[in-house]
Each structure stands twice: as structure tokens, then as C-alpha cells.
Amino acid sequence: MVINTNISATDSASLLEQSSAKLSQSLQRLSSGSKIISPADDSAGLAVSMKLTAQMARVDGAQNNLSNAVSFNQTQDGYLSQVSSALSRMSELTVLAQDVTKATSDRALYQQEFKALGSYINDVATKSFNSVSLFAGGTLNVTTDSDGNTFSNVGVNLKAASYTTATGDDISTFTGAQKALKDVTGAINQLASDRANVGTNIESMTYYNNQLSTLNNNLSAANSQITDVDVAQESTTYAKYNILVQSGTAMLAQANSLPQSVLRLLS
Fold it and tell me: Closest Cα partner for 59 from 182, 222, 170, 185?
């Protein structure tokens, strides 16, 4: 038996240090909810998790873009619904102005209302959404995924000739009312097509948005498998190393006391 080198104590101290490190790691995982406290815990998993997290952020951005674009189209349709009512009334006025029993003064009154409705439509053509023109007619490329792919959002042009010709007509004469009827009918047909495009835009982007929601859920689940701690399993691990630390501490104390037995040989 030797005194200078206590192998039992050295081994016990080494094992106690390992158990203490595992216990500390388990505590950190339980308190943070994450399995990866440092890159050394799972370097490959950390790399994958970083990529998944970045992709989820891009997906969130694309969803935000789609939601705003849907709101843009819904605002368009709100205005176009009123334009539809205005054009319907204008078409009615063009027929009323063709009544042979109406005097010139009667047609002048019809023209007054017709002109006011036309001015309303022309004013709607100038409206914007967050400083972006609602009715400039240009196609907007809306981001639909995390890779930057886009959907062509077909625009509406209320300054197109089919609209401006109708709103500029004069129904104060019988001949003018006949021409206006033809022009307003054309504007109504154009509006029907435009509103159908707006509806298609909203429907398509809603599908894209739903698709992104599903993708984001799947990405989140995959990332959770890599980074989130299993509390039940980790609690068991914590209990294990907590016992090992306590028993290791006791055994180290016991190992440190062994050299004292040499004194019995000297007495």
C-alpha cells in the first residue's frame, strides 16, 4: 500500500468530474429546452438547424408578402364592386335618355348624374394601397416561397380606353345616349373580366399561403426533432447523473481516507 499516489482517489475524482459535467449539461438542457447548448453537443445537427431556421424565416416573409398582396386585391375588389354599381346605373341612364317622350331638359338631368358617376369612376382610378397604385394596370410579381419564386398578380387598369371612353360620353342627346350605351356596356364587360382576374389572384395566392403554412409546420417539426429536448428522457438522465455525483462524492471521500489505514501498520 502506498501513500504518495492514491490511484483510487484519482480514478474516483475523474469519474466524479465526468458525472458532474453530464449533470451540468442535463440541467442546462432542461432549463433551456434545447438539446444543443454548444456546437460540440451536435455540430451536424446545429448546422442543419441553422438552415431550417433561416428557411422558416424566409417562409414567414413570403407569407407576409402573400397576405399583403391578398389585402391589395381585396381592396381593389372593394372599389370595383362600387364601380360596378356606378356602371350599372350609367347603363340605365343611357337607356332612359333614349326615351322619345323625354325633353332636352330631362336628358340634361340624366347627363348631370351620368357625368357625376363618371367622375367617381375616374377618381377611383387614382386610388392607391400603401402608395402603390391600385389601378395602374401593371402586373405585380408576388414572392410565393422561400426561394424567391413569384406569382404574376394581374393588374386592373381603370384608365384604359374601355373605361375612359364610357365615363367621357354625353347622353344629353338621343344619339349621344345610343353611343354611351354601347361604350358603357363595353366597360361593364371589361369590369367583369377585371374582377374575375382579381378573384383568380386572391384564390391562387390563398393556395400559396396555405401551402407555406403547411411547409412551415413541417420545417418546425423537423427542427424540433434536432434541437428540442425530450423532457421525460432528459429528466431520467438528470436523475441518473445526480445520483452518480452524490455517490461519486461519497466514494471519493472514502478513497481519500484509505491511506490513513497505513497508520495502523506503523502503530
Answer: 222
CA nearest neighbour of 208 among 78, 55, 65, 74? 65
Architecture of domain 48-227: Up-down Bundle (1.20)
Domain ranges for the chain? 7-33+229-266, 48-227
Task: Kindly report the pTM of this predicted structure.
Answer: 0.78
45-54: long-range contacts, CB 8 A cutoff, minimum separation 24: 45/226, 45/227, 48/226, 49/223, 49/226, 49/227, 52/219, 52/222, 52/223, 52/226, 53/223
Measured distance CA(121)–CA(157) in Å, rounded: 12
- CA–CA separation, 60 and 143 (whole Å): 11
Least confident of 79-83, 132-136, 245-249: 245-249
> Is residue 79 classed as helix, strand or coil in its secondary structure?
helix
Q: How far is CA 39 from CA 120, 220, 241, 242, in A?
A: 64, 20, 22, 24
79-118: pLDDT as tens digits = 999 999 999 999 999 999 999 999 999 999 999 999 999 9
- Residue 199: C-alpha distances to residues 90, 131, 184 (Å): 24, 22, 22
What length does the chain have?
A: 267
Question: How far is the CA of 265 from the CAs of 3, 104, 259, 261, in angstroms?
Answer: 12, 138, 11, 7
Give helix 104-124 / helix 43-96 axis angle, nearest 10°: 170
Residue 264 confidence (pLDDT):
67
Best CA proximity match to 214, nearest among 47, 62, 46: 62
